[in-house]
Amino acid sequence: MSDILRVTVGLGDRAYDVLVGAGALSAAGPELVAHFPRGRAILVTDRHVADLHLDAVTAQLSRLGLRVEPVIIAPGETSKSWAGLEQVVDALLDRNIERSEAVIALGGGVIGDLTGFAAAVTKRGVNFIQIPTTLLAQVDSSVGGKTGINTTHGKNFAGSFHQPKLVIADRDLLATLPDRERRAGYAEIVKAALIGDAPLFAQLEAAGAGVLDGADLDQAVAAAVAFKARIVAEDERETGVRALLNLGHTFGHAFEADAPKDVIRHGEAVAVGTALAFAYSAHRGDCSADHAARVAAHLRAVGLPASPAELAHSDWNAASLVSRMRDDKKNRDGRITLILARAIGAAFIDPAADEADLLAFMETQLS
Ligand SMILES: NC(=O)c1ccc[n+]([C@@H]2O[C@H](COP(=O)([O-])OP(=O)(O)OC[C@H]3O[C@@H](n4cnc5c(N)ncnc54)[C@H](O)[C@@H]3O)[C@@H](O)[C@H]2O)c1
Ligand SMILES: O=C(O)C(=O)C[C@@H](O)[C@H](O)[C@H](O)COP(=O)(O)O
Ligand SMILES: [Zn+2]
């Protein structure tokens, strides 16, 4: 296990480890097998990942003595839905999963969020293990226990906090990831740096797109995971500081909710949302225009969008986007909560954004 990095999410008796690096799955061995007392592993994945990785993953799990029972669902956000949830819960019940058993989520954020939520509600809670196969899932969605589905009201509007027992972020699984997905995942690494790690952002700026597939990737993944783990350990249920992890998401989720499904990637919406959070902070005088410009320049340098016009959908309406923000889960007392920044690496929570000013700002951004 010498080349495998280990990050612990310190949640007391629900603490778990995130293993990062090439070969992490085969290195996991006994600590993985311990979660399958019946010797079988129900594994939920999507069709793309199944075609690319299921045989190899099944072979690795077989070598550890586990019999894999795959559940294969359609790829994409459409599966992160009530229908997708019913499909996965029924699949677990068909196989008579017991509470002592874990289910494996092998895939991107969609599979992780959906399977985690299914695990949370099936028989009032079974265990689950994340084997993330997108960069986004490795750096962000597999860690922290936010699970859920989208509803017509918006992103992740039904869900639960249900922590995995183990996360295995094996770099070998990323070999088949299309560049667009890789960049989308990188947006959440940038987000982490912008929230509270200015030196990491400087490193990312220096490394440029090289960090996306170079030897630096494991370090960057582990840094983003460690950053998230610290915040989750402090505020698991987002009563305070965890809301910072939503930098770029108040804007980003509004774009996702107002676009047709699967036209823009979550990471792309977060990239634009993060650039807007900095631009809006600069507009309010909270943050220097230089920092906002550096954020947008870095996102563009790695091939990510930094303004609404650079997204793969163009039919935006400022009033509709602000109305989505009014529904955001972070809001309190009928006011929009925004995650803004005083500088790169210094995000803060504004629990009462000025809606009229925000609307005017969005109008200028869309014009
Ligand atoms: N729970 C959280 O904390 C959290 C954090 C961030 C994002 N999310 C959620 O995660 C979702 C986005 O996740 P995502 O970006 O991973 O999208 P995704 O799960 O839809 O995966 C993107 C695409 O890549 C394919 N794919 C997955 N692994 C692959 C591989 N190794 N090789 C080739 N193709 C592969 C998938 O089949 C899919 O087509 C959103 O729903 C978002 O809301 C949740
Ligand atoms: O883990 C968190 O907390 C996050 O906010 C991470 C986000 O990257 C992620 O997209 C999350 O699913 C958003 O959560 P939501 O509560 O805004 O739905
Ligand atoms: Zn996100």
UniProtKB/TrEMBL annotation:
Q: Which Pfam families match?
A: DHQ_synthase, DHQS_C
Q: What family does the database annotate? A: Belongs to the sugar phosphate cyclases superfamily. Dehydroquinate synthase family.
Q: List the record's Gene Ontology CC terms alphabetically.
A: cytoplasm
EC number(s) per entry:
4.2.3.4
> Which reaction is catalysed here?
7-phospho-2-dehydro-3-deoxy-D-arabino-heptonate = 3-dehydroquinate + phosphate
What is the documented function of this protein? Catalyzes the conversion of 3-deoxy-D-arabino-heptulosonate 7-phosphate (DAHP) to dehydroquinate (DHQ).
Cofactor dependency:
Co(2+); Zn(2+); NAD(+)
Q: Does the keyword Oxidoreductase apply?
A: no
As to how many cofactors bind and how, the note says: Binds 1 divalent metal cation per subunit. Can use either Co(2+) or Zn(2+).
GO function terms (MF aspect): 3-dehydroquinate synthase activity; metal ion binding; nucleotide binding
Task: Please list the residues that bind NAD(+).
Answer: G109, V110, I111, G112, D113, T133, T134, K146, K155
Q: Where is the 3-dehydroquinate synthase C-terminal domain?
A: 185-331
Which species is listed as the source? Maricaulis maris (strain MCS10) (Caulobacter maris)
Q: Which residues form the 3-dehydroquinate synthase N-terminal domain?
A: 71-182
Residues binding Zn(2+): E188, H249, H266
Localization of this protein: Cytoplasm
Stated name of the protein: 3-dehydroquinate synthase
* Functional pathway: Metabolic intermediate biosynthesis; chorismate biosynthesis; chorismate from D-erythrose 4-phosphate and phosphoenolpyruvate: step 2/7
SUPFAM superfamilies the UniProt entry points to: Dehydroquinate synthase-like
Q: Which HAMAP family match?
A: DHQ_synthase
